[in-house]
Amino acid sequence: MQFFGPEEVATALPWPALIEAIENTLVADGAQVPDRTVHQVPTGVGRPEASLLLKPGWIVGDIIAVKAVTFVPDNGVRDLPTVNAGVLLFSGADGTLIGACDGNELTTRRTAAASAVAAKRLARTDARTLLVVGTGALAPMAVQAHLAVRPYEVIEVWGRSLAKSQAVVDGLADDVNVPSNTTVRISEDLDRSVANADVICGVTGATAPIIKGALLQAGSHVDLIGSFTPQMRESDDDVVRRASIFVDSRTDGVLAGDLAQPLADGLMTEADVQADLFELISGEHPGRTNESEITMYKSAGIALEDVAAARLVFGA
């Protein structure tokens, strides 16, 4: 059995190849995703509960992958990742175990790549300003992935900690994936940056809205890939009111707080979701329909994205 650590996973998942693999896998014949399961796990007196997610997916007769994910909300105070994951890959023909790999690197990369897949179809073709809201591991990867499908003249990074924002900006300044003629800078005023951005990418674990829909300019694209539980939310009700809504999965996308809470409050129905990622990739839905349309993409993660990424890692 093979095992690949974070560095090996990163090397095996260059952005163009990963983006293409996700596009191909989601529309592959025999691609199936059963319901994920979520368990609440006590962590001790005085601490918030952890979450354990199990996400399987497969292509019939070809490949099977299952990812186990833990989310521990207070890990940040210990300088540990709040999300930890591992992926197992099996043969779909005979069920034998092919191997295991680190799931943290794989998850952040495939999440960013799927975000770029959606942005190819939902952001304006002349989008030039990208705002990344959040400073965790997903922040620089979101920038790299989005740059793989469209050039940006200006990239801004906003975070609650100025030091963390600066660290992300400094890292991007030395990143070979970022063109030398792209301006990368800190956003010191989130509201002003939201109002000026063509594409806004939320990569936080926020539990209260921080992206205000009233500030969005016509034609902007809001890409929400940070939250994945009903309690987590990055955008407010005005984003839902103003935007055409798209999801990675009609089953899972509506479970995250950015949509789950407006649904519970009666501000929208599931019929308001225009399309999922499969329908966008296959062309069943055209994506953006005009230059002034505000679009919103909500991701909670699809197991087939893990299948696509794991196949690349193992060369399966």
Topology:
Blueprint (H helix, E strand, L loop, with lengths): L1 E3 L1 H7 L2 H12 L4 E2 L4 E5 L8 E10 L3 E9 L11 E9 L5 E6 H20 L6 E5 L4 H10 L6 E5 L3 H12 L9 E4 L3 H7 L2 E4 L18 E4 L12 H6 L1 E4 L9 H8 L8 E4 H6 L12 E4 L4 H12 L2
Parallel strand pairs: 1-7, 8-9, 8-11, 9-10, 11-12, 12-15, 13-14, 13-15
Antiparallel strand pairs: 2-4, 3-4, 4-5, 5-6, 6-7
Total helical segments:
10
CATH architecture of the largest domain: 3-Layer(aba) Sandwich
Biggest sheet architecture: 8 strands, parallel
**How many beta-strand elements?**
15
SS strand fraction: 15-25%
- Widest β-sheet, arrangement of strands: 10-9-8-11-12-15-13-14
Poorly predicted runs are none
Mean pLDDT: 95
SSE pattern: EHHEEEEEEHEHEHEHEEHEHEHEH
Distance between the termini: 13 Å
What would CATH call the class of the largest domain? Alpha Beta
Radius of gyration: 18 Å
CATH superfamily of the largest domain: NAD(P)-binding Rossmann-like Domain
The proportion of residues forming helix, as a percent range, comes to 25-40%
Write down the CATH topology of the largest domain: Rossmann fold
What number of domains?
2
Based on Cα principal axes, name the global outline.
globular
Structural class: alpha/beta
